[in-house]
Amino acid sequence: MKTAVIVFPGSNRDRDMFHALELITGTRPQSVWHTESTLPDVDLVVVPGGFSYGDYLRSGAIAARSPILKDLVAKADSGVAVLGVCNGFQILTEAGLLPGALMRNAGLTFVCREVLMETVNTATRFSSKFEKGQVWRCPVAHHDGNYFADADTLKQIEDNGQVVFRYAGGTNPNGSLNDIAGITNAKGNVLGMMPHPENLIEPINGGLDGRLLFESLLEAA
Amino acid sequence: MKARVIVTLKNGVLDPQGKAIEGALGGLGFGDVGSVRQGKVFDVELTGTDKAAAKAELEQMCEKLLANTVIENYAIEIA
User: Fold this and answer.
1) Where is the catalytic site (chain A) (predicted)?
2) Which of A18, A25, A220 shows the shortest CA–CA distance to A127?
3) Between the N and C ends of chain B, which has fewer C-beta atoms within 10 Å?
4) Do the chains contact at B65 and A146, CB–CB below 8 Å?
C-alpha cells in the first residue's frame, strides 16, 4: 500500500504517522509539504496531528486553505482514502471534506489521556478489521475536539452510518455530540478522528489497539 | 477604507468559553449578567474606495476563511 502524509507548519504528529505507516505497510510514506500543488499517486493520504499555524483563527482553518488542499479535495472526490487524525480531522472539517466542526473542549482544558473507543460501523475501509461494538483503548491529546453539527447534519450522518467511532464507557473527553470520536464523509473514503491510533501500535506504546485501523486500510488497498 | 468584521457563534452552538467568562463575571460580583457569548473582531484595511465592492469582497472573505459558517455568523461594518 502506497501512502503519503501532508506536513504543515506546526504539524507534530507527522513522524509518529510515518513510523506507524511504515511499520504496518512495510513501505515508507511520502512526505508532502503543504505548499506543493500535487499529491503523489497513492492509496492513502494522511493529514496528521499537530498545531498547524499555531491553531490561529480556528484549529485547522489556515491549513485547510493551503495550496495542497485543492489536490486533496480532488483525490478525495476520486475515491482515494484520506485519514485525518486530531488536527487532521479539524483540517478536513474546515476544508469541507467532512461535515460539522470541532470546537473548544467542553471542559475548556487540553486533554491528554487514554479513552475508550467503540467501533460502531465496521463496513468502512478504516474499520473492517474491528468487530462491531468492539471497545478499544486509544490516546487523545487535544484542546478542540468537541464535535458539533447542526441537528439535521447529525441525523444525516447517524442515519448514513458515517459515525464510525464513539467514545465509550463514559470517557468522552471533550463534550462531543453523541460521543462522536470519528466520522466519514457520505462516500466513506474520508475519515476524521480526534484520537491517535498511530500511538498505540507497538508493545512499547503499551498496547496494539490502534493497529486494527491501519490493518483495515492495508486490507482494503 | 476601514472595515470591521464581527464573527459570533450561531444560536444553539454551545460556547464553553463564553460560559466560563459568564461565571467569572458572576464571581466578580456582576450579579446581573444573564449570559455571555464570545466572538471575534477583525479590523481589515482595504485599498479600494468602492464600498459596495468592498462589502462583496468582505463577504467572500468571511465565507472562505474568516468565519466557519457551520458554527458562526458574521457581520460586516464599513467605516
Assistant:
1) 86, 196, 198
2) A220
3) C
4) no
For residue A154, how many other CB atoms are within 10 A of its CB? 18
Domains of chain B: residue spans and CATH: 2-78 (3.30.1280.10)
**Residue A148 to residue B65, Cβ atoms within 8 A:** no
Task: State yes or no: pLDDT of A221 exceeds 90.
Answer: no
- To the question of pTM greater than 0.90 for the whole model, the response is yes
B69 touches chain A (CB under 8 A): no
- Total number of domains constituting chain A: 1
* Contact criterion met (CB below 8 Å) for B69 and A95: no
For residue B40, give how far its alpha carbon lies from the nearest alpha carbon of chain A (Å): 9
User: Which residue in the set B17, B65, B66 is minimally distant from A108, CB to CB?
Assistant: B17
Which three-class secondary structure state does DSSP give residue A5? strand
Q: Which domain holds residue A142?
A: 3-220
Task: Report the complex ipTM.
Answer: 0.87
Catalytic residues of A: 86, 196, 198
Residue A154's domain is classified under what CATH number? 3.40.50.880
Quote the cell numbers at residue A98: 467532512
| pLDDT, tens only, A93-151 | 999 999 999 999 999 999 999 999 999 999 999 999 999 999 999 999 999 999 999 99
Q: Is B11 on the interface with A (CB under 8 A)?
A: no
The three grid cell numbers given for residue B17, joined into one nine-digit string: 468559553
